[in-house]
Specification:
The complex is a heterodimer of chains A (240) and B (249). Chain A is built from ten helices and no strands. Chain A is an all-alpha fold and 240 residues long. The chains are: A mainly alpha (240), B mainly alpha (249).
Chain lengths: 240, 249
């Protein structure tokens, strides 16, 4: 899920990718910790606008734009006026179309504005939990909604490995993290994340017949960005 | 009836029936373009008002841009990107027209889109809070008027196409109706400044059309959309100083 240097697992493990699912939120928390640490280190040196832009860039680089690419392909496919099978085929096209470009631009701008406008009191906690909740949504989407393709690949392996036990483990970890960082307000954040996940998943089922790896990525990106706004909203920090 | 056609073409609002985009109703629909723009502006202004209670300005502005893209189905942004890809490529006019047809985005399109959205976001943030609703309504209405002006006043570049069906039905009458409606909306909402924006939009449209005609055999639907985005953005940028000038004078 990241481009952090890690020992390469054996290629034959693709089928067993599912065992990694419970640890997705932990990867998110690690990303969040990197963001929060970066913000803490850079804040005394650089202007807030610059720090915000750097953090947005850091998230793109750390994930190799994996989920952002999913968002672009998902928007292109959902907006295509054609049969679901043609939409699915379009997702394999690596080049971007207009809807995807617009969505990516607005999402990056939205993340920049959301980070820049984070109130002082929740800045660290929001940065810490946003990637965490984003990856939880990813696991939840794997577990809760049907997969649209039959072709073998990493996403199908993950879908088949998305058991209830693994979903529960991921959710327990996420709830623990949220409770620790935000207290009871974390519940509202998770509720908002679940609602957004459900919305995108329903749209995707209606227009594609199910979810694909790209849609899981799109959900991660959208929920991550939304969490940056949901955290201040949940604790009422925007008020002043 | 023709207002519904204009609404169906320019927005993704859920409308009762799928009206055919053809025939003289299209020419009459052109006259309604400024009103559709004003309606879109009013929807944005309402969302702006509602969201501002919960979220800070910079975030509300991103959501407004996203809402506008959803409401219009990205129609004009699409045109803007294709126009950037076509106009800035070093090709013959015919090859440029072919680039317009390519549904994928080129590098000029991405650069143009990023720059445009960033500028729109910054401009929204700089709108004076007392006139935010008025600025949104006038900028969107006037931008749609500029399309009508371009469709009626300048030659079309293709034998067929989405823009062609409008061009064929467009006459001086449509421009007259649209201008009267545009002046009524802009003047009614922002007074003298509103009328100045209409004149500015005409100037921008004229300059842009001249520029396009130097590089293309004629205008197309994509360039109409690009013009809409261009006018809308520049008006959002120019409205605050114009309003300040009025306040001082």
């Amino acid at each position: 899920m990241t481009r952090l240097p890690a020992p390469q697992p054996h290629v034959q493990c693709v089928a067993q990718l599912g065992v990694a699912l419970p640890f997705f939120p932990a990867v998110g928390l690690l990303l969040g910790a990197l963001l929060a640490a970066g913000e803490w280190a850079l804040r005394p040196l650089l202007a807030p606008t610059v720090v915000s832009a750097l953090l947005v860039a850091a998230l793109v680089v750390l994930t190799g734009a994996l989920h952002l690419d999913g968002l672009v392909d998902t928007c292109d496919a959902l907006c295509l006026n054609a049969a679901p099978t043609e939409r699915l085929a379009l997702m394999h096209d690596s080049r971007a179309r207009d809807p995807g470009a617009i969505a990516a631009c607005l999402l990056l701008l939205g993340k920049f504005a959301a980070i820049l406008l984070l109130p002082e009191t929740v800045r660290t906690s929001a940065l810490l939990v946003a990637p965490l909740v984003g990856r939880w949504a990813n696991v939840a989407a794997y577990w809760g909604y049907p997969y649209a393709r039959r072709t073998p690949g990493a996403s199908l392996a993950l879908k088949q490995g998305a058991t209830r036990a693994r979903m529960l483990a991921a959710t327990a970890f996420t709830c623990g993290g949220l409770l620790l960082v935000l207290g009871p307000a974390g519940g509202l954040v998770l509720l908002g994340a679940a609602a957004l996940t459900h919305l995108v998943a329903c749209l995707s089922r209606q227009r594609l017949g199910g979810l694909t790896g790209d849609v899981y990525g799109a959900i991660t990106e959208l929920v991550e960005a939304a969490t940056l706004v949901l955290v201040p909203l949940a604790v009422g920090a925007y008020g002043s | 009836m023709s207002l519904l056609v204009a609404l169906q073409f320019l927005t993704r609002l859920p409308l009762p029936a799928g009206l055919p985009i053809a025939g003289p109703a299209l020419g009459r629909a052109l006259g309604w373009f400024p009103l559709v723009g004003a309606l879109l502006g009013a929807v944005l202004a309402a969302a702006d008002w509602a969201l501002s209670h919960a979220l800070p300005r910079g975030l509300v502005d991103v959501l407004l841009l996203a809402l506008l893209a959803l409401l219009t189905g990205g129609l004009h942004l699409d045109g803007f990107m294709d126009t950037c890809d076509g106009l800035f490529s070093l090709r013959s006019p015919e090859e440029r027209l072919a680039i317009f047809r390519d549904s994928r985005v080129g590098s000029f399109g991405v650069v143009g889109l990023t720059t445009l959205l960033l500028l729109q976001w910054a401009a929204l943030g700089a709108l004076p809070s007392a006139h935010r609703a008025g600025c949104l309504i006038v900028a969107l209405a006037t931008a749609r008027w500029a399309m009508v002006y371009a469709i009626v006043a300048f030659p079309y570049g293709r034998a067929e196409g989405l823009g062609r069906v409008f061009k064929d039905q467009a006459g001086p009458h449509a421009l007259l109706v649209a201008t009267a409606l545009g002046a009524l909306i802009a003047g009614g909402v922002l007074g003298g400044v509103g009328l100045v924006t209409l004149a500015l939009a005409a100037l921008i449209a004229w300059l842009f059309a001249r520029y396009c005609l130097g590089r293309l055999p004629g205008l197309t639907g994509d360039t109409y959309g690009a013009l809409n985005e261009l006018v809308q953005t520049l008006l959002l940028v120019l409205l605050p100083p114009l309003l300040r000038g009025q306040g001082a004078g």
